[in-house]
Design goal:
- The chain is built from one helix and nine strands.
- It is mainly beta.
- The protein has one domain: Porin (Beta Barrel), CATH 2.40.160.
- A hairpin with a 5-residue loop joins β7 and β8.
Length: 131
Amino acid sequence: MKFQKILILLIISFSLNAYSSYSGVYFCSDTHKTGFEPKENFKVYPFKGNKFKAKIDFEKKDFISKEIFFSDIAPKTCSVNDNSTITCHITYGSSFTFNPESGYFVRSQFLLGKNKPYDSITIAYGTCEKF
């Protein structure tokens, strides 16, 4: 009977901490980044990719990376779906989606002014590795 209780507690503990093994600090790098330049009638340009650190907490559904404007003070919304993918959006016009099992991410940056976008619109994909 005691063994069964311990086994049940272990199973519950592992299921509650399913995402904790993924949480931590990651080093991410854009593989390719492209976008549009509104100041040039939305001409398509290749953009220089970024390398950035990201603090990802799958349990608390949180993502912080100051290098790509996801600071800890920026209003944001994050969710984690059934296949462990986290997706976050900030109110300033950026999004980030990452799957820790594959290591791939997709991100975008966009700001919309009163009449039209006034800053470059970009989308990038790449990989992240846990430190």
